[in-house]
Structure formats: structure tokens, C-alpha cells
Amino acid sequence: MHKAIGIGLIGTGFMGKCHALAFRAAPAVFEGLPPVRLARLADVDPAVTERAAARWGFAAWTTDWQALVTDPAVDLVAITTPNFLHQPMALAALAAGKHVYCEKPLALDAAGAKQMAEAAAAAGRRTLVGYNYLRNPLLRLAKELIEAGELGEVRHFRGTHFEDYMSDPAAPHSWRTVKATAGAGALGDLGSHCISLARYLCGEVAAVQGAVQTLVPARPVPGADGQLKPVDVDDQAQALLRFASGAAGTLEASWNAAGRKMGLTVEVTGHKGALLLDYERMNELRLFTFGDRKRLDGFKTILAGPEHPDFAPFCPAPGHGLGFNDLKVIEVKALLEGLAGGQPPSPDFAEAARIAQVVEAILRSAAEGRWVEVATV
Amino acid sequence: MHKAIGIGLIGTGFMGKCHALAFRAAPAVFEGLPPVRLARLADVDPAVTERAAARWGFAAWTTDWQALVTDPAVDLVAITTPNFLHQPMALAALAAGKHVYCEKPLALDAAGAKQMAEAAAAAGRRTLVGYNYLRNPLLRLAKELIEAGELGEVRHFRGTHFEDYMSDPAAPHSWRTVKATAGAGALGDLGSHCISLARYLCGEVAAVQGAVQTLVPARPVPGADGQLKPVDVDDQAQALLRFASGAAGTLEASWNAAGRKMGLTVEVTGHKGALLLDYERMNELRLFTFGDRKRLDGFKTILAGPEHPDFAPFCPAPGHGLGFNDLKVIEVKALLEGLAGGQPPSPDFAEAARIAQVVEAILRSAAEGRWVEVATV
Amino acid sequence: MHKAIGIGLIGTGFMGKCHALAFRAAPAVFEGLPPVRLARLADVDPAVTERAAARWGFAAWTTDWQALVTDPAVDLVAITTPNFLHQPMALAALAAGKHVYCEKPLALDAAGAKQMAEAAAAAGRRTLVGYNYLRNPLLRLAKELIEAGELGEVRHFRGTHFEDYMSDPAAPHSWRTVKATAGAGALGDLGSHCISLARYLCGEVAAVQGAVQTLVPARPVPGADGQLKPVDVDDQAQALLRFASGAAGTLEASWNAAGRKMGLTVEVTGHKGALLLDYERMNELRLFTFGDRKRLDGFKTILAGPEHPDFAPFCPAPGHGLGFNDLKVIEVKALLEGLAGGQPPSPDFAEAARIAQVVEAILRSAAEGRWVEVATV
Amino acid sequence: MHKAIGIGLIGTGFMGKCHALAFRAAPAVFEGLPPVRLARLADVDPAVTERAAARWGFAAWTTDWQALVTDPAVDLVAITTPNFLHQPMALAALAAGKHVYCEKPLALDAAGAKQMAEAAAAAGRRTLVGYNYLRNPLLRLAKELIEAGELGEVRHFRGTHFEDYMSDPAAPHSWRTVKATAGAGALGDLGSHCISLARYLCGEVAAVQGAVQTLVPARPVPGADGQLKPVDVDDQAQALLRFASGAAGTLEASWNAAGRKMGLTVEVTGHKGALLLDYERMNELRLFTFGDRKRLDGFKTILAGPEHPDFAPFCPAPGHGLGFNDLKVIEVKALLEGLAGGQPPSPDFAEAARIAQVVEAILRSAAEGRWVEVATV
Fold first, then answer.
1. D60 with D189, same domain?
2. Last residue of a domain, one of C74, C108, C132
């Protein structure tokens, strides 16, 4: 029997709650996981934090994240704060000897991410970055199919992450719309997810040619009576990709993509077949392979089910789909297994630093109007 | 602050786990729910039950369900056993003064369901039956749209529940394939879900004309070396419906519907519009209404999001879909609110008895080749 | 070289034009067809008819259909008039020794259809009824798959023909809304198409249990200042089907199906697979078969292409879809082949009389509230 | 009454037949068109040409295209030959005083296209280039919506033309796989269609950054016993686009896109909405606009119907879709109207030369690894 792992969670917002629910669910959904102790919760507003701690079952709470990261009851620090806080919090947690589970993007730039990866290596602690869309059982199936050669030689990748939460010019200015606190705009917030999937399915991105646009150059400051403040990050981004394998591709991100609510899509094509995954229908994998009877060829729609990785513990019945939050439960399962001595969780800080390099290469390419090798960033 | 509600759960299978996960999640997902205490778990296999109790966080376990239903630590008995056990367990729990949360179908026949409803009324206890597909936020939106008159006068309902888990003639004989232990076949197991949605959206079913077929007349007995045993329940069923409102409709159920994994669908049509919901894409509601500009008319695909009932506590972002298990979390939320003095949970035993009447009317109609009024069953 | 076949076309409306275009196209699309001579066109309005004759290339025109059916230049009479005119025109044409190509439904009732079939047999002339949706290359593929046993034993059929052109209560009274001139309402106009497909795929319908509703009991008389006139035909119809093969099924028709523009759908399920065809996406066949690798099972979407019957003469490229009018071109091709000594065109009057029997059995069943054997109608 | 326009058609292959069918159909489908006389057909094989002429109704035929372009009976020369023949044939036809209707791509490069445009201007003849996908009624609707501001300011275009007819490495070497006879590969054959739609919807492309790949470097020579010959054109291409309007975009083309049969897609996004068109479902336009009731927002699927440009003459019923060949009929209608003194047909040679410039800019950019301004090509 494993000793319970003490969880310290920083952040009570969208992703904070998502983490909390996942830590509660994972040990009950999956067999053989180490038990989890919800040790401490931190956020800035005491009333909110206290109520959340009670509701989510945390034993203690604080408004001082530094107290949390040094708390002896905490073995793992989970970071769900705004981007610019990831680096100081993670470094402090590693310095205190904790494992770290950090939301994406890892840092504000590639240098920051690299520093975090080096700190993790030096500390000998386990890390995981919350690229949760990697946990989709059908994405796992997709990778297995690619690795088994079912698509033949992969020649083409096409990915997007389109949402529309900033489509309205009246959507407010925030830490997300400032380079100094967000690192990048839609490319960092959404595009980095798509890069995580591109790498997972097709291997390293070798070079990029990018373009970025700021469509809404200034946005209203909340509570400031219509006062506008300049935006210095991208609203949408496009890139041509060249993979180390030689495959070509494109990648796009936008938070101004009117009508798209979860427009994370990937398409991989080889000379023998192709597959598509669209996270607005995340329980469906579309698969095409040339068959013996050409008249029966067509894209097949495979519904997620217990035959696919990590699905069965949720439900023994196929087509009874998983939800967005379930992906986090699978992520936490991989994390806990890693902490209990299993396979190191992935993507760790080092891998997330590779993703940050791709983001930065696209931004640099866009600024300089030329192809940029990712390795040089 | 509410006193914690002691949960006694009977059954550790598919739905048992689904209940356990939901009881763990609901008080963390939703604000203001009474706390829950996972008091006791019961099932027949001691090793399985002990492990499940540990994993799911139950304080105690037993192989004696009668001990569970009389356990003073238990306030609510949740029943997830095979159909034929629902009635004795629920009656015993009510007799012991417990609230009862029972999986569907409620009983083996309409008479049994009626008896259970009467016992619940006599005991003055709260009951809820697990017609979990009623909890879909988009179904709730559908009902609001209908009630607001957006479809005009409702004239037509069309529903199915198609799955294919018995499609293979080698799928084994079990309690599900025997009338004495299951009550009905696909019509009871799946069709009853569809009836629950039909009633929710369109009101009471007044009369039915049904047909049922047993496609695989005998199935192999597990572990009996290929020995076949007769099946006396339906593999598929069809019915014409007449609603009390005057609307017409059809309903079909099959567990031999090759290719369908979660083929619960409803379509409601009025003179001003129509809507469709397909649970293989349960995060999408398709809505048509005649507009001012005919050339722009078309079915709209609405993605579930925080604007829809009960969605926001899971995720503030639209299109980040819910999963099958999340429906049970919403169901448990409604249950706990009801137990804490809020609106009585629905469908309770009395409502579930109405559903049982529709099932039985279809079976009787099929046997007699004529229309059967539901009220007379 | 064949002698050119002289075509006499009655009707210049929707289907009249569709016929004219098809007669112009078929001999150019398909190789080896006998040449066609557009001999004469008839309709009631001389100006309209003259202009249409010029535009469509008819050598002559008339407002006297009786002159057309006895015109020696006419070998084949094509009838596209309102339903109540089919019978007298076809009988006159047969009496004059012509082949007859008649739009559906063949007659106002089963007796009328039978009489027409007998007249055709007595005259020894070729007949074809315009159930054009039978011509879809993917429907032909579907039938081949069923006959080859790819779905296993067929157990279930589910069909609809839903459109919404009468959904608006202000849609005017016309010959279509009167039993004496239309025979039936949505069931005859649309449902008969679906019956033609059901028979094609699954064989004869043995018995039915039907229900019909008149949703709009009176409609405005055109040009009569809002005056309403009663409607005595169905706006929507439902039926349970029992096929001679033992398969069960359902069939529905409605012209009040808000949002459906070409909602002709068929689903056929066997124990090894299933297929679906929806004429709003008539270039897509959805096919499911259980495979060796359960995790890769799913419905496949097959796009129409030159590998499918009758497609290649239109286009050598797959996915470059056919349109509604192209189905009529294929129908005319089958007709011309039949007239040139090839396989008799199907469905002829005798087969269309079988379809009329099914329609009538549903109406009788609806009136009497019991199952009706089709053979007895 | 117009004098009949004499048509001289060169080519009897895929597009030759498509033209022939369209010339037969257009004057019958549409009212008010000038009559057409199918004067002469030319191709290299006498037997094939003679049979095609007979089947399609041409008065004469020849194997000498030069005889055709100078034939006094010919007013319009339609060119459907391999790419490298477009320029000499069109120039000869213009020199002979004929109007010219030429398949795409217009020439082998931008310089050739420009020369053709200048020759047409000098000759004062009407020209049209066969970018047939521009004729889709729903594309016309899309443009009207964009122009009416329904999407707000357009910020993003995303287009593809993916097919898979060269996916198989054994697909043979031909004039299509040689730069000297084709000009470009997938980018010219397919990508040029997508460019035609991009320009139509979003205006001129100002600059591009492209990448191209030859995936199958050598292909078998037909009839040469497995002998391989090098391929010097692209199998797939990607480009970032910058429109004159300031909008950004991407464009991709591939004839190795396994599973795609008619993968021409366009997506246009503004700050108020978005629309999508996929030619595998060419009768469906997907439209999103932000509405007053956020909970009802979603993409609407609009089915083509008589309310949309040029649809009604084919069929008065919505959802009764058009086919691929029907687009050519609409194209021919626009051509004939232009020849009869109406609006000049578009895209003429001058516009097609703009498309050729975009193709060439992408190729140059790919070679030089930098952004290329289209105007400078």
C-alpha cells in the first residue's frame, strides 16, 4: 500500500477546480493508484479559498502560496495560476523538494521554460505539464495506428486550436492580453495545445514559418469606464511546419474564431491513410485507410469505448462518451503512477520546454519573415 | 450547514461505480449541496466489495444487503443491482425508513412499480429513479424551448434507444434475457430511457401500438460448453405513440442495432420548428426554427456550454463537453438537493411507475395486436 | 442503330421539367442508348407550353393531352400531371399503344393502380413509374451489400420521408390536400417513395399497423381572401411494418416536418452490420460491419464515385457528387434500355401497384386500429 | 430572338464531356439564354471523337483542332485539353476571332496567362475560365453574406483543396506530373480552384509564404514495364496568405490527401461570424453569427434551395441538391449570357492571370524561403 500523496493546489479558478475534481476522482476511477491526500489549497481571496477548500475536501487552505510550497504535508504542488506565476511558483516548489504539476504554457518564453526544466532535473523531482488533450483515449489510439504503420509514411499534419472567447472586441483586457504576463496570446494559450498534439503524433517540429495578427489592438480595462489599453499579443496565428521526419504541416490558433468553442483539431495523412480528431466531438476518431474494395472506402467514425486506452475504468460501454474533465482525471492518473514509481509522467518540464521553443520560433519567424529552425530558439 | 447524508450503495458493477463516482463528485462540483458520507457498500463478492469500498472511499462494506438497508449510518439506499432485486431491496429500505435511489427500470412490471410507489408514499421517503439521460443540460434547454413555444404546437415525437451489445448471437444468456429477472428486454433496458425523455419533452403517453421481436431465440449459457437456453424477452421493439396532448410519435428500442453504441435519440417537431438530440453526440442540440429570411433557414448545432442548465459548475468554457458520467453527477445533485429539503427529485417512484406502464402497454399491445391505452395498464 | 424513340411529355411543372432535362441528358451521358426524339409537349397553358417546348427542344406542343397520347410521332407518353390525372392519361396512352412513363404515386388508390397494371399487361407495353430515389448509385450499392450478406440476416428497416413544404398552416389548399384528387397526403406523396426503397432493400411488406394525422384541418383557398377549405388527407403518417422476410420495421412520412427539406432516409440493420442513407446527403452511404478489430469498428462514410453503379458516366472522379436531377437521368436511361429491348424497366405499373397496396393498407389500418395484411388490400 | 451560338469543343475527356453536357442542358434549364448550336468537336482519336460527337449532338467533328478554331460555324471555342495546350489553342482561337472558354489553370505560368489575357483584350473577345466551383449557389450566398457585413470585418480565410487520386505511388507518370506540360502539380490543378474561391470571397491576395513537397519523386511510365520517371511538380503545397484587405489566411492543396475525394473547403471568419463550405457536401453552407441569445448560438447548416442564386431553375424544392455537373451548367449559363451581351463572364483571362500569379508566388516563395508579393510576379 502506498503512502498517501499530499497535494497542494494553487489556484481555484477554471483549472484549479478541474485539478481538484481530478484528484478526487482519479483514485476511485482507476485501480492501483496511490491514495491522495488533499493537503492544502491556496488562492488570493480568503473567502473564496476557504469555501473551495471545504467543498473540494482540502484539509487546509492559505492565501500565501509560499507557505503552501514549503508545507511538509505537501508532496506535490499543482499550479493553475496565470502564466507569469508558473515559473516562480514552480521553482520555489522544486527548491522545497516538491514534485510539480503545472498548467500550460509552462513559462512566458522558451528561456524560462528551459530554466524550469533544468531546475527540475537538478532537483530530481517529477514534473508534469497540463496538456490535457493528450489524454484522449482516441488520440492514444491515433498514435498507435500511426506507429503501427496503418497510415503508411506520414506526410502531412494539419492542426488548429480555434475558440472564440476573445472574438468580441469588448472582451476585456487582462493578464492574457499582455506579453509580460501571458508570454503569447492565442498561440500560447491555444496553439501550444495543438503543438503538444503535433509532437505526440508526428515527432519533433524542426522548422517553422509563422505569421501572427493582433486583430483587436486595444481592449477595455475592466471597471475603468470604457478606457482602452493596448494589446501586445496575438489574437490569431498561422504557421507552416517542417517536422524532423520530413513531413510538412500547418498549424493555426485563434481565440477570435467566431463559432468555435473547442476547435482543437488534428489531421494526419500518410500514403496509406489518414485520421482526424476534432475535440468538439472528442469521442469520435475519423479514420481512413485504403482497402481492398475501393468501392467501400471511406472515413470511418470510431466512437470511444472500453477497447481504447484508459476508457474502460470510466465506463464499460462504448459510445458512452468521456467529457472534458475526464481528460484531467486520466492526466492525474498518469501523474500519480509516475509519483508512485511508474513511468515518469509526460510531458514533463523538459518536453514542455520543447513546446515553448516551437511557440517562440513561430513568433520569431513572424517578426522576421523567414523560416526559423526550432532547435536554435 | 447540513448534516452529512449517509449513503448506502448496493452494487459494484457498471452502475454501482457510476453512482460511487457521482457521490464523490457532486458535492465538489456543485455549491450548496449537503455533505455526503459514503457509509456502506454492499455486493456479493467480498473481495471485490472490499477493494471497491477502499477505492471509492466507503467507510464500511458488507455482502449482506439487508444489513445495509437497516444500517443506522445509512440515510439513503442506492440500488444498482439486477432488475429483479430492485423491488425487494427498495421495499426493505423504505420499511427501514430510508430514502431510496434506484436504477431503472424500477420493477419487473407496472404492478411492481406501482407497489413501490405506494410504499414510498406511505413511508414518506424521497425516491429517485436513475433515468440519467434526463440530466443532459441540452435536454433541459430543449424542454425550455418547447415550453416557451419556440417549436409552436408539438405535433410529432420520434425516439430511439439503439445499442448493439446483444447483436452477436453468441452474447450470453443472463438475467437480462429472462422475463422473470429482467421484466423486458431491450424495451425495458433501453426503451424505458427513451420513454423517460418522451414524457419529459412531450407529456404523458396516452396510447400505444407496439411490436416486439426476439431475434436470437436462444443464447449460450456462460460456462456451459455451448449449451443454449431460450430467450423470452424482446431484442427489439417498435411502437406508435399517441400523447395526451394529441401529438403522434414513434419509439424504437434495440440492443441488436449493429453499429449503434449510444443510439438514444429524440426528435420533436412542431409547426414552427424542430429539435433533435443524439446521445452519441450528447453535447450537441440541433435546433430548427423558421426565420424571417427563408434563405438562411437551417438546423443549428448548439454546443453545450455554461449558458445551459447545470453545465457551468463543470466548466466555464462552452464546447468543453460533458461525459456520460457527468450526467449521473447532475442526477445526484438533484437527489441531494431534494433530500436537503429542496424540490423533490424527479422522476420519483410514482413517475417511474408511469414509465413502467408505457413499457407494459407496448408489450400488451404487441401481444394483442391492437392499440392499448396506457392508463388501463 | 436504334430508331429514335418519340417522347410525348404531359406536364411542364416541377416534374415535367425534370423529365425534359433527363430526356435531353440521358443519351449524352450514357453510351449505347437509343436516340430520343422530343416529339410533343402538352400542358394546359398555351403560352407556358409553347415557351417550354422551345426551351426544351420539343418538336411540337399542344394543350390537348388526348391529341398527344394518340400522336403517331409519340412512342412513349411521360405523365407528370397531378395524381388524379395519371390513371385516365395512362389508360388512354396504353389504349393508343404507347409505352407509359408515369410519375408517382401511380393512382389514387390500390384498385386504380391495379387496373392500370392490368391494362399495361393487356396492352403489352412497357411501363415505368418515377420512383426516382431508387436510382441513387449508393442505394444500388446498399442493395448489393445486403444481397451479398454483408449485413447478415436483415432484422430491421427504418425509413422516413420528411419534408416541410406544408408545415405552414397558410400553405394553400390544392389538389394535393384533397383525397379525391391526391389519393393520400404526405403518405402518398412522400411515404410512397420510402415504401419503394423499403421494398427494394428488404422485399415485400407483409403487414402494417398505421396511424395518420391531419394537423392542419383546413387551409386557405388561393385567391379566395382567406377563405378556408377542409383538408381530408394526412399531413403525417407512421407505420409499423412486418416484411415477408420476417424483418420488422417502421416507416414515417410528413410534409409538416419543420426543417427537413429532403428527409428521405433508410436504415437497414442485420446481425452483422447496418447501413444508412439520407437523401439530404445523397452522395454518402454510411456502412457499419463488425470487424476483426473491435477497437476500429465504426460507421464508414462512403462517398459516391465511379466504382458505384451508373456513376462513372457522369464523372470519373469520386466525391464529385450527383444531384437530384441526375437520378432522373439514370431513371430515363433504365427506361430507354428497357424500350430498346433490354431488361424491362422497374418499378413498372405492377410493382407500383404493390406500393399503392402498402399505402392503402396503412390508411385502412389507421382507420380500423388494427394490423392489416397488405396482400388483402 | 438570339442567333444560335456555334460551339466548338476541344477535348472529349472528363472535362470535355462535362462541357458537352452543360451546353446541352443550360438553354433548357435557364430561361432567356441564347440558343446553342453544337457545331464541332475535336480530339485526337477519330473513333472516340466520332462516337462522342454523335452521342453529344455535335454537327461535325475533327481530329484537327486548328480546323476547329478557324471553322466559321464556330463562335466560341471551348478548350478542355491538357494544360500545356491551353495557350496555343486559345491564342489561335482569339486570332481567329472566336470567344474562348478555357479550362483551368489558364496557362503553365503567370507570364503565359498574362499573354493570353492581353491577346483576349486585343482581340476584343469574351473569355471565361472554368473555375466551376465558383458557381455553387451557396458560395454566392456566402459572398452576399460577407458583403452585407453579416460576418463583420473579415479577419481570416482558410482553404484547402485535397483529393487523393495521386496518393498511390503507383499512380502513373503523365503530363500532370511534369512541370513543362502541367505548370504545377497539386497546387496548379487543385490549389488554383481554392485560390479562385479565396479571391471571390475575400478579395486579392497580396503576399504569400509557401511550401511545396514532392512526396513521390518518381512514378511509373504507363506501359513501360515498371520503369520510373522523375516527377518535378508538387504533390502537396501549403501557404500563408496575406490579403489586400489585411486579412490573414492559409491555403493548402494536395492530390495525395488519402480519403479526400472532393476536399475543397473554405472557411471565412469575421468578428461577428463565420462560414464554411465543404464541396464533399456542396449543398450545405455552415453559418455562424453571434446572436442575442448566447445559449442558442451555433453553426447553422443551410441546405441549398430555390432561394439561393441560380438554384430554382434546376428544382423548385430545397434540399434536392445540385451535383458537380450542375455547376458547369451554371457556368455555361453565365458564359452564354455574357456572349449575348450581358455581364461579361467572370473569371475571364485577366482574372485567371491573377490566380496564376498567386500560384507562381507560392512556388517562388517556396523556392526562396521568404514572403513574396503577388503583384511582383
1. no
2. C132
Query: Between chains, do C274 and B259 touch, taking CB under 8 Å as contact?
Result: yes
The whole-angstrom separation of Cα C29 and Cα C8 is 21
Residues A313 and A178 in one domain: yes
B361 within 8 A of B374, measured Cβ to Cβ: yes
Q: Contact C25/D27, CB-based, under 8 Å?
A: no
- As given in the structure block, the three cell numbers for residue A261 are 468553442
Q: How much is the CA Rg of chain A, to the nearest whole Å?
A: 21
Domain-located, residue B377: no
Report yes or no: C49 and C41 within 8 Å, Cβ to Cβ. Answer: yes
Type of residue at B348: D
Residue A161 domain-assigned (yes or no): yes
Q: What is the CATH number of the domain that holds D317?
A: 3.30.360.10
Instruction: For chain D, give the number of residues.
Output: 377
Question: B163-210, pLDDT tens digit by residue?
Answer: 999 999 999 999 999 999 999 999 999 999 999 999 999 999 999 999
Residue D14: CB atoms within 10 Å: 13
Q: Are residues A29 and A149 in the same domain?
A: no
Q: What is the CATH number of the domain that holds D123?
A: 3.40.50.720
- The answer to whether the CB atoms of A324 and B321 lie below 8 A apart is yes
Q: Do D280 and C260 touch (CB under 8 A)?
A: no
pLDDT value, residue B2: 58
- d(CA A55, CA B31) in angstroms, rounded, equals 7
Q: Which of D295, D299, D300 to mutate to test the interface with B (most CBs of B within 10 A)?
A: D295
Three cell numbers, residue D376: 511582383
Number of domains in chain C: 2
What b/e readout covers C258-289, taking b as 16+ CB neighbours within 10 angstroms? bbbbbbbbbbbbbbbbbbbbbbbbbbbbbbbb
For chain B, the first-to-last Cα distance in angstroms comes to 45
Enumerate the residues of chain B whose CB falls inside 8 A of the CB of residue D307: 294-295
Smallest CA–CA distance from B142 into chain D, residue: D296
Q: Provide the residue range defining the domain that includes A49.
A: 5-132
3-state secondary structure of D347: coil
B155 and B96 in a common domain: no
Mean pLDDT across the stretch A248-274?
98
Q: Residues A311-369: pLDDT tens digits?
A: 999 999 999 999 999 999 999 999 999 999 989 999 999 999 999 999 999 999 999 99
**Which stretches of B214-343 are assigned E, i.e. beta strand?**
218-220, 228-230, 236-243, 248-254, 263-270, 273-278, 284-289, 299-303
Closest Cα to residue C252, out of D30, B252, A232?
B252
| Number of neighbouring beta carbons within 10 Å of residue A111 | 14
Residue A105 corresponds to which cell in the numbers above?
504554457
- Phi and psi at residue C360, to the nearest 5°: -70, -35
Are A247 and A267 part of one and the same domain? yes
Residues of A whose CB is below 8 A from C295: 141, 302, 305, 307-308
Does a structural domain hold residue A328?
no
Q: Do D226 and D311 belong together in one domain?
A: yes
As for the ipTM of the complex, it is 0.97
Rounded Cα gap, residues A349 and B40, in angstroms: 42
Distance, C-alpha B272 to centroid of its chain? 30
Q: Collect all residues with Cβ–Cβ distance below 8 Å to D368 and sequence separation of at least 6.
A: none
**D254 and D105: one domain?**
no
Q: Which of B86, B113, B132 is the last residue of a domain?
A: B132
Q: Identify the three-state secondary structure at position D128.
A: strand
Residue C146 within a domain: yes
Contacts of D297 in chain B (CB under 8 A): 302
Q: What is the three-class DSSP state of C361?
A: helix
**Contact between A156 and A273 (Cβ < 8 Å):** no
C300–A299 C-beta distance less than 8 A: yes
Residue A174 amino acid letter: S
Q: Do residues D123 and D163 share a domain?
A: no
- In this complex, which of A14, A51, A315 lies closest to B316 when CB atoms are compared? A14
